[in-house]
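Forum > Structural Biology > Help requests

Title: Can anyone predict the 3D structure of Gll0650 protein?

Hi all, first post here. I have the sequence for Gll0650 protein but no way to get a structure on my laptop. I'd be grateful if someone could post the structure tokens.
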Amino acid sequence: MTALPTAPILDLPVHLSADYTRSLVELVEAAQGGHVITLNAEMAMLAQREENLARLIRRADLVVPDGAGVVWALQRVGRRVRRCAGIDLVESALRQLAPRHTRIFLLGAAPGVAEAVGEGWRRQYPGLVVAGARDGFFGPDEASAVLEGIARSRPQLVLAGLGVPKQEYWIEQARRRLTDVVFVGVGGSFDIWSGTKARAPRWLRENYLEWLYRLYREPWRAKRMLALPKFALAILRGVRR
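Reply #1:
Sure, ran it for you. Structure tokens for Gll0650 protein below:
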């Protein structure tokens, strides 16, 4: 992948690219492995409390500005970038990777969900090789067997939807075994790809209000959303300094 400049957000690097899809495709085609993180404000604030998560973000091969808060923070320091939602990044990359017969593995969500997504993608992206899929419900005693199963499928790209920060910590462990594989943490995207959950309407997404739609559909997120004003305050304090 072509080396990209970065800009710091709360001491976390965000890569600056005119085409994040191209950056991800290049990373996969290089066949040297990698970790892609889609950063939002909630994850950035969590990294302020969990140094291990901050360390992983700093070491990631591609950190994408997923959340509206991250885009706003970059704009505050003169970096003009557009939001690149992880779900859109993956879909865009698959359209380019499919004709190359790229092998992918899907890990996460409830039983049957990732498998359903894989079946749909075989039809949607001709040429794409869905080498395997399984749910994200496994304990520490099964982790080794899950990893071995993924290794046998010989993927080039693994999408891990285990939630933040669990998926990042799992990816760190998995990369020690699968050194030439690119991993992308996709959070709850499998539920959207399968139709289990609905995504916010396009006009909300384009106006950086997808978080509001999520809060409306899932009120239990209210406590987690408190990270947003805390993030904004931390950015404003940093800019003033």
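Residues 227-240 form the longest helix (14 residues). The two ends are 34 Å apart (CA to CA).
Shout if anything looks off.
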